[in-house]
Amino acid sequence: MPLSEEQRLNMIKKRQKILDSAITLFASEGYEGTTIKKIAESAEVSFGNVFTYFKDKEQLFLASVVEPLGTFSEQVLDFNTDAEDPLVELQEMVTKHIQLFAGVKSYLTLVAQVVGQPHRYPAAFEQLDQFHDQLREKISCLIKNGQHKGVLMKQDTMPVATLYTSLLIGIRLNNTDTRYSKIWDQYISPALQLFGPIN
Amino acid sequence: MPLSEEQRLNMIKKRQKILDSAITLFASEGYEGTTIKKIAESAEVSFGNVFTYFKDKEQLFLASVVEPLGTFSEQVLDFNTDAEDPLVELQEMVTKHIQLFAGVKSYLTLVAQVVGQPHRYPAAFEQLDQFHDQLREKISCLIKNGQHKGVLMKQDTMPVATLYTSLLIGIRLNNTDTRYSKIWDQYISPALQLFGPIN
Amino acid sequence: MPLSEEQRLNMIKKRQKILDSAITLFASEGYEGTTIKKIAESAEVSFGNVFTYFKDKEQLFLASVVEPLGTFSEQVLDFNTDAEDPLVELQEMVTKHIQLFAGVKSYLTLVAQVVGQPHRYPAAFEQLDQFHDQLREKISCLIKNGQHKGVLMKQDTMPVATLYTSLLIGIRLNNTDTRYSKIWDQYISPALQLFGPIN
Amino acid sequence: MPLSEEQRLNMIKKRQKILDSAITLFASEGYEGTTIKKIAESAEVSFGNVFTYFKDKEQLFLASVVEPLGTFSEQVLDFNTDAEDPLVELQEMVTKHIQLFAGVKSYLTLVAQVVGQPHRYPAAFEQLDQFHDQLREKISCLIKNGQHKGVLMKQDTMPVATLYTSLLIGIRLNNTDTRYSKIWDQYISPALQLFGPIN
DNA sequence: AATGAATGAGACTTCATTCAT
DNA sequence: TATGAATGAAGTCTCATTCAT
């Protein structure tokens, strides 16, 4: 007697709720500061039920870092390296990134923890690092395009890309607000300067 | 019976050794990942002796964050807002900052933890935040000076200052190496772009 | 709606399969070392289904010890106390016992557990103890017969019977092999000595 | 400041008390049936303190099996294979063994558990098995001596030795009393028959 | 009857802190 | 001051049992 469709959906929802609670708590309380009990309470799930969905705390942490990465990276990587007008593309990319980073507080705090202590979370770090490389590579391409077209000043592109991603994670770390607000818009224009636009 | 001078010095050294070990371990293993036993072993001090110098773990953590701040902030704040040539001053500041951040891995990883989880470490965060404000303020002044002298493009100065400090903590987070190396020099020039230099 | 004959048979088979798995596992992993999940997997039955056939773990354990006892005791007690030639009867009994004990590894390991920790499994122990008494009594009778007929030396019979059953459970404990093999035959002749045969 | 002699002695006593409690409990309740809490209570020691002396439950179990083995094996192996009068030596050996096994209930129940589930306690079994081999070997020698001198009937010696050790562990398993009593003496003479004495 | 998710009690273990020496 | 044994609270995880489907 397999599970009914309704039950299956319910379980998927439940799993997601646990994961969301875990992300929030891991982000704000840290790995050891977060107890399974807290997660269960926050997700309105019984203590033991957490283990129905995640083998152990470590796996739950890993899932908290890795699972949202798919959607997130897709959004972050959504820009065109071969754009006709690289300056406009850059502007749009920066705008989107800033707004995205403004709105995703918990997850990015979690990411910052993993990035800050790679040897403590090797599996999670591995995945993040891979994405990070991909992102920097793609940004680097767009910059090269801009330099080619003479709208960006000539400079090594990878350091700039690295600085840019550092800046993104850095502002997320430095800001305590949870949602996007006008304040974040102020960052767009100076952040663009990093790429050395020629007007 | 008062302690001899030699004993007093010895104790000061011991305390510092414990603090250094604590910083390294808190940085790499996190707060609850770091045990008093590990700290004692790393500092080559007996287990119970740690409590002779620090009341409890929390205070030791606080000291790990706060005590190095004095020297560190002095170095970071060592630039002249009223410089004759703000561009040169900026260049020197950025160079110094990058080199400084390159060389202080453990402590800054620790700082990033506190900044990322402010409500978990309120006392420590308070101090760091205060320093951060002071730093941004001072950088903002230097930028204003540059804009006044027409060597920097006009833009809101605080967002730029914030971006700059974000960038600093961000590159520290993104790099795993423990010491300054030539690689870090690549960041200086693009980081300068952030301020919108006019040549 | 009563169950069809086929269903009834199926359930009986299923119950036996669970019991067999339980015996094997209880024997090799011990009571708490054995989980319902393991039993279910081993019996190729769903987890919850185990509880359809056995109220709880304790009852399943009890059944594991008690149910096979019927067949087993029948075989063990199958010898003739009033045999014409008690020496031959003894020889045949010992041979049969050794072969039987050689072939029933799991169950006897389980029995040994219960016998070794009587106060932990009082109900199970009770039953085994009763059978044990019966067995010793019957062996004692056969010995007496032999002594009467002058083919066994005179000695107290109960201690000999007890030693004999001890020896049987002891060799089972000391041997790791699961099936009867020629090795076991070596034990027959010396075991017979226990009874003090006169030739 | 190393520990004082008195403290060291105290710790040794404490460790032994824990070990003794563990042996008793493991014997009567089994491995999983025995909790650290129970052991601590029985040894009149705080819960956490158990871990000062034994890394974890498994190690405590191993120590419970292995540490008493030294004294025990010494006593069990204390007989002379080259005795002038092997019959007398055998008689003395059996007497001593029976009395020894009568008086060491808990430890031998524990031994029986390990022997019965070797794959569950591989490390402990290893040690016991080694001792067992040594014992059988030595008994075998004494039997050979007796056969040589014509006071024991000719038969394979190893099976007899194995039967004898089986018998010893078997009677220990079958008897519930904790101390040596006259009852045990009844076993001596029939047990001797096993070796096929010629009078 | 059959299934497997849900529950929470209870086990092991770690570790900050206390304290006697 | 220095040491490390003693304590027990708190955390993770397992698993028998229940129960809705």
From TrEMBL, chains A, B, C, D:
<dbReference type="GO" id="GO:0003700">
    <property type="term" value="F:DNA-binding transcription factor activity"/>
</dbReference>
<dbReference type="InterPro" id="IPR009057">
    <property type="entry name" value="Homeodomain-like_sf"/>
</dbReference>
<dbReference type="InterPro" id="IPR001647">
    <property type="entry name" value="HTH_TetR"/>
</dbReference>
<dbReference type="InterPro" id="IPR036271">
    <property type="entry name" value="Tet_transcr_reg_TetR-rel_C_sf"/>
</dbReference>
<dbReference type="InterPro" id="IPR023772">
    <property type="entry name" value="DNA-bd_HTH_TetR-type_CS"/>
</dbReference>
<dbReference type="GO" id="GO:0000976">
    <property type="term" value="F:transcription cis-regulatory region binding"/>
</dbReference>
<dbReference type="Pfam" id="PF00440">
    <property type="entry name" value="TetR_N"/>
</dbReference>
<protein>
    <recommendedName>
        <fullName>HTH tetR-type domain-containing protein</fullName>
    </recommendedName>
</protein>
<keyword id="KW-0238">DNA-binding</keyword>
<feature type="domain" description="HTH tetR-type">
    <location>
        <begin position="12"/>
        <end position="72"/>
    </location>
</feature>
<feature type="DNA-binding region" description="H-T-H motif">
    <location>
        <begin position="35"/>
        <end position="54"/>
    </location>
</feature>
<dbReference type="InterPro" id="IPR050109">
    <property type="entry name" value="HTH-type_TetR-like_transc_reg"/>
</dbReference>
